[in-house]
Amino acid sequence: MSILAIVQANEQYNKSIELSVQRAKTEKKYQEQLQKQWDRNLKNIKSHQLPTGLEIPLIAVPQIDHPAQIARYQGEWGFPGQFPYGLSIYEKSFLITDGERDHEEPTRIFAGLGTPELTNERFHYITQCQQSKRLSTAFDTITLLGRGADNPDYFFDIGEGGVSITTYQDVQKLYEGFLDTNVSISMTINGPSLWMTAARLQAAREAGQNILKVRGTSQTDPCKEDDAQNELLFPLDKSIRLAMDMFEWCARNAPLYYPINVSGYHIEQKGATPIQQAAFTLANGFVYVEEALQRGMSIDSIGKRLPFFFTSGMDFEYISLLSAVRRFWAVAIRDVFGAVDPSTQKLKAHVQTSGRSLFEREILNNITRTALELFYALLNYPQALHSNSYDEPITTPTEGAVRIATDAQAILLEELGGFKDMMGFLSDSSGRMKAYHLVLEGILDYFRQINEMGGILQAKAEGFFRDEIARSSALYDHQVQTGQRRIIAVNHYNEGRGSPREVTRVEISTEMKQKRVDDVKRFKSKRDLQKVKGNILKLQEIAGNGGNVFEITMQIVKDVTLDEWTNALQQVFGLYRRKI
Amino acid sequence: MTTNIIRGFIGIKSNDGHDAPILVVADILKKAGIEVILGGYDLTVDKFVEAIITEGVHFAGISSYNGGHIPFFIAVRDRLKIENYPFIHLIGGGGSTISPQDITLLESENGIDKIFKSGEAGLSVPFIKDHYDFCNVPDSPEELIDGVKAGNKLALSAFVNLAEDKARLDSMLQEKIGRINMNEGSEQFNQLLNEPLGANGGLVKQALERSKYLGNCLAQLEPSGNSHRSVVIGIAGRGGSGKSTLTDELILRYFNDPRTENRKVAILAVDPTSATSGGALLADRIAFMYATDKNWVDTSRVFIRSMASRGAGNGISFALPDTIKILKSAGYDIFIETYGTGQPDMGIVSLVDQAVYVTTPDLGGATQIAKEEMLQIPGTFVVLNKNELQGARHVSSLLQGSIKQENLFFTTAIEHNNPGVNQLYNALTRHFH
Fold first, then answer.
1. Which candidate, A10, A141, A157, A428, places its Cα nearest to that of B71?
2. Minimal Cα distance from A567: which residue of B?
3. pLDDT (tens digit, 9 = 90+) per residue, B74-115?
């Protein structure tokens, strides 16, 4: 892939804005043309009444004194829903007119605790007040590493930090009552993603649903695992191949499903600056685009099915981070990969507030931090949004804390005058423009460096991303330790502040863990072992000869357990070599 | 007795990949003059216990963030008791998920020495230095000899500690006595015997006696009663050339090879001692993924020991010859990994049956190749690793011009079942017949 082409396309685009502004200053005909477009856009904007009785337009637009400003606005941001999607990929989002919502609310709350049964209960609790049901699943690390809950070496870790899943039956229990196709289920899983996605799709099928209509997302982002999260089961190149096997299969058979979610969140949590998060995540996205193109997929079928995932944190850059990422992506997808269909150019994103920005001391302050990060996130018009619970520094979120985190979103979107009243009410502010340009330039600079290193995979192999992240992480720690970065009640105004004395923590009891072991053992013992063995051999054969591993996983997932699937493929591909 | 160099093992518990805290601690400990062995993340109780025993450490640190820490700490403690490990000193940390109540529970009711809260990493050094006794060299090594012969890992490890202690005393004595150039028994020499040795070294006399005594114990070790001879392979090369990964891949092949079914293998991984602090960061174990995983190899037949160079400047440690002798007497084949800091790792060549020199495509041009001393030794295997990187073709044709074809290998060690690594393994196995 030519990183150089991506760099040049963006440089070219930036230049074209300046050219267009210059023309608008001098060419009469061009001025007229711009003015005509502008008037057309304005004419389409409807008005509505605020609760206080005032009448306002549904979309915010700047006051224009000269056509050059039109050229600037359209080139830099574009109207909501228009290229380069700086303001938003949709024309309207979050508005509530006459008490009616235009779109689904973006709220998507991450949950997973202990057993599939408990997590299922939590899902019912979270979604009871949501109009549209959108689940997000956290798995325990045993599951994330493709292991079995019945492995005695890992007994302590069962259900810690997420739900424990080993068998097909576990997946059925986890999503019971949510397998209807109007529920969108997101799964934060990477190494074992093929197995988990296959189980989830088969569970939907068994519940009588049409897989063509199943909605949801699997994370499946091996590149960022290599950069930050360290949870790959197989070497990176093999992990990318498996991800693409699923991507290709879903494009044909589950076209509404998002099999890959290109994730910057973990990169940021590991210590990356906002710009590093943006640049490395975009780079990872282009890896998948290139791999899919090599398999003969069209840019349209790729671009529409490749959503992203970013952090919203306390740093200034977050005011415009997602906007900048969207523009950089759209320019490359249009001008390098030749996508003319706007819906291919539009980068869809889920945003989560930053876990790293939360602290144990004076723990309720985390509610304020999260609320402000939500506000920054919303300025960028993401498609889905998760707010962290204030107690996350010390425990898997408790029920009460989850409720407050969910309410925060509703307060911002439904109570606060702003998002519900006028699309983009602060979007093209001067401060946002500054942050936007800083991030765009920062991304471009990283892409130039990656180009000099011979490409994205080459830069990864040399540890470039990891080293950059480690450097930023050390700096951040230093700033927190020395107080250069102010953290209220932690390193500033911290006298007499303490850690919460009485905190409810989510406890996964020994009985609960034992139940998991028993359930998995029972499932395993009830199977026709000859058949299981045959299925595993089939899986290994296809993995070895380059066939589609997802397709065979769909066939065998009902009786081959997660740990068996992992072991079988590790025999073929070897282990992922950890970097530290 | 003279104060030993402090050795500690630190790692992150199973199903946990949060490696930021432990990297901070490793750096602090190294700078405080401690030899810290870094075990990486996702370590099971088995892996912790195995590492603590074979590394012969004075203390171990467990980092945990993901939860499940209380039973984990207790399990490690209990297993060390069962294994009769003499130094059950466990400390821990990892973040706020270990609550104040958990800390109380672990410290006052479960014999965990100390849990450090987030931000307290700096307190670990004074705690370790104030609370632990670092003399883990056995008082009467004779008792260990039967254990070594039987291949008991605890005895082997204790004996290696002894060899390392002897090497330490010898190099201190060398420095003290060697400079004066005198005869034993001379007046000047006798005078010297009552002088102190180093900061904590006691008197010269005591050190000499101790060294002699340890030498006698080592002399009592006999070659193993095995029908086969132990094979010693030395893997040298610059840092970052992939020696540890290559070693790990070779160990995997060793265990897949029916010819080695009844043999045991040791890995001795040498890393440099910091000249400024005297501490060391011994991090090779992280790369030994297959060699430490019971799902892939029979870990009961693997013995891994990380060694700090402690002043030896040629890729090895002064304790290496005695350590080889100890492991040989227990019937182990041995893979030695030198530390490679750019200097030629020539120290290894005379100690091994087969020297392997690992290099990468950024080796340089013809002049650089002519300067690499190990490349000039006939019979050394030369491995061009990371053969997939840019520049490999240029360097490989240069090497082909100067190295015999049967001694030259092209590998991509990070690739599973890499054909180049297979060829290297097969070439090495001629020593196993």
1. A157
2. B295
3. 999 999 999 988 888 999 998 878 888 889 999 999 999 999
Residues facing residue A311 across a β-bridge:
A352
Domains of chain A: 3-76 (no CATH), 96-482 (3.20.20.240)
- A403 burial via Cβ count (<10 Å: 0-12, 13-18, 19+): middle
* DSSP designation for B305: E
Element holding A31 (H helix, E strand): helix A28-43
The beta-carbon neighbor of B417 closest among A140, A230, A574 is: A574
- Whether the Cβ atoms of residue B302 and residue B153 lie closer than 8 Å to each other: no
Give the three-state DSSP class for A407.
helix
Q: Which domains does chain B have, with CATH numbers?
A: 7-131 (3.40.50.280), 141-219 (no CATH), 232-432 (3.40.50.300)
> How many other β-carbons are positioned within 10 Å of the β-carbon of residue B240?
11
CA geometry: angle A194, A197, A199, nearest 5 deg: 105
The confidence score (pLDDT) of residue A81 equals 95
pLDDT in tens, B187-220: 777 788 888 877 666 788 888 888 888 888 888 8
Q: Which of A169, A145, A142 is nearest to A155 (CA)?
A: A142
Partner-chain contact A141 B16, CB within 8 Å: yes
Residues 265-304 of B with CB under 8 A from A: 283, 286-287, 289-290, 293, 295-296
Nearest to B100 among A160, A270, A499 (CB): A499
Q: Is the pLDDT of residue B144 over 90?
A: no
Which residues on A lie below 8 Å from B118 (Cβ)? 360
Q: Write out pLDDT tens, residues A138-172.
A: 999 999 999 999 999 999 899 988 999 999 999 99
Q: To the nearest whole number, what is the mean pLDDT of chain A?
A: 93
What pLDDT, in 10s, does the model give residues A293-332?
999 999 999 999 999 999 999 999 999 999 999 999 999 9
Beta bridge mates, B355: B234
Q: Helix A274-294 and helix A236-253: axis angle, to 10°?
A: 70
Tokens for B241, please give them.
């050339």
Residue A267 in contact with residue A278, Cβ under 8 Å? no
Residues 142-161, chain A, touching B (beta carbon < 8 A): 142, 145, 147, 153-158, 160-161
Contact B66 A160 (CB under 8 A): yes
Confidence of residue B388 (pLDDT cuts 50, 70, 90): confident
Helices marked H in B90-230 — which ranges? 100-104, 124-131, 145-149, 153-178, 187-193, 204-219
Q: What is the pLDDT of residue A502?
A: 63
